[in-house]
Amino acid sequence: MSDDDMDDNNDFDNDYDDDNEEPDDDDLENQYYHSEVLNEDDPDAALEGFKNVLALEKKLGTKGDWGFKSLEQMVKIYYKKKNVNLMLTHYREL
Prior knowledge:
Number of helices: 5
Distance between the termini: 59 Å
Shape: globular
């Protein structure tokens, strides 16, 4: 094996660092699903979790599926709690 062959193998060193947004998207996804599980037993804790998803999106400067889904869940929770004002506020954000 020549030195040129060894240099070619070094081309793969940074392949895993190219996608910098993926871990952030994973954080959003994990927070969303964690909040969804909380919703079964503790809707108030779930609301806080969904708010964290929105805050994380804002911090990242993006809007995406996880924020939309979080708003959707928040609207449903506020509907079940009969809190029409907050339900409509978050519905308008959709």
